[in-house]
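FAQ: What does a ligand-bound record look like?

Like this one, built around phosphoenolpyruvate:
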Amino acid sequence: MKLGSAASPGIGLGKVLVIKNEELKIENLSIDDASVEINKLEEAIEISKQQLELIRDKAFTEFGIDKAEIFEAHLMLLKDPEVKKRTVSKITSDLSNAASAYHQVIEEFILIFESMDNEYMRERAADIKDVSDRVLRNMLNVSIVDLSILSEEVILVADDLTPSQTATMDKSKVIGFLTDIGGRTSHSAIMARSLEIPAVVGLKDITKSVVSGDIVAFDGDTGVVTINPSNETILNYEKQKEEQIQKKKALESIIGQASVTRDGVKVEIAGNIGTPNDIAGLLKNDAEGVGLYRTEFIYMDRETLPTEEEQYESYKKVLEAMNSKPVVIRTLDIGGDKEVSYLKFEHEMNPFLGYRAIRLCLDRTDIFKTQLRALLRASVYGNLKIMFPMISSLEELLDAKEMLEVCKEELTKEGIEYSNTFEVGMMIEVPSAAIISDILAKHVDFFSIGTNDLIQYTCAVDRMNQQISNLYNPFNPGVLRLIKMVIDNGHKEGLWVGMCGETAGDPRIIPILIGFGLDEFSMSPISILKARKLIRSLDASEMKLIADKVIQMGRADDIEAYVTESFSSIEN
Ligand code: PEP
Ligand code: MG
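The answer part, i.e. the structure of the complex:
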């Protein structure tokens, strides 16, 4: 039995698929029969072709033509007659085995491409490596980490899952995630919740404890994982799974009801999304809006920056789908644990404290302006609210707003329409911003508190580090005081204040947030109905008295105990 961080609720029970990039060992062997090797080559090329065609079609239906074109180009490389001709000649003249002959030919091609003057051609070397890696793996029967085609239901086990892996994987076949690293707010955990897939993260060595094909049973609510469980344990988990399904069904009676406390305080419960595809889950869970659209996923899992047109289409799609309900779209927040390989940033000692989010956008104004123009153009299709991430000073906020004005002027000159009524807000996720939130409030329409980062920066606790995850605690009184301060400062200036970090959906904290007067709660769609049920059972004036007491307390464990005791009568 193993214990990790409970990352996404639900019971996971099934076969494991361990994701590891197994190293390719290409041996140079002498052969007797060239025709056998030529057959191996042809077979590997044919299997690779079929795989790439499947991926291309899937990319087309799920992401559109641009992503599909990447795989179309890979297919062209795969079918290159010159590569095949030279490999066959090496097999027959040198009596080399197919893998070694193909590898040598490809290496020659890569060298040629890498030494070209033209940058575009140099970049094609990476495509050739990608395609040839697939061919060689197929030839040598070494597994390919391609989660977009899975033949059966699996529980993915990995060191960590990258956002691009989660974006391309076959969601209908993945029934759970288990990872070595990460905490509740790592991106694999957030993605698991948004996909409503049970997950446990931060298991330290789960990749070494299981092999593909093993059976695991785990509980995404407690973090307990059992490897190769007994029949009795399996039956137990199956029973729990059934109970959870029934509970989930019961929650459906909350659909269509208002998010209002017993004494009539109305709040908004919105959902967090990563792509327009997440809207379906959001609507199914009756979200009252999108409280956070993490746009960075548009920039990931591709080879070039997304164009203005592509971004405009995504934003428009979300705004239209939400049909005049509020949609908070956050400008690009890459860096930290969200890498974009083609931007080739320098290695940093502390990426979470480094060149990320608004810092990057104010430096790379080309990237920033493209996004702002796309957002402005989409603004006429719904109730858009633009939000800047990682603001740590008034200067940054004003510079970002200035850039928005520049884009507005450009569009006006070009005769392109945009709305004049959308709101502009910022995330409060850096303590320096929380501390001057009275000043910042004069320059925005709303605040959204990003507790995932606010806790990490306030307590100096890496949100990805399992070893110190006990210190990553939303009950930390320093964090709670900052949250209250931001809400009070926002209200003094007439702003609405929301929260889009994971704490917003945490039933242990929601009563305190109601007591603090938080206006909007944005969370993984899976948590919405549960949160609404809880809020409907609370009395806001009672919560205020409890919250006032909490803010005077000095120990996180005392606060947690006091809050748990105060709400023990509330069923959730
Ligand atoms: C946050 O920091 O709370 C947040 C919502 O942003 P992200 O998790 O994307 O860093
Ligand atoms: Mg953040």
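Follow-up question: can I read anything off the structure? Yes, for example: The mean pLDDT is 91.
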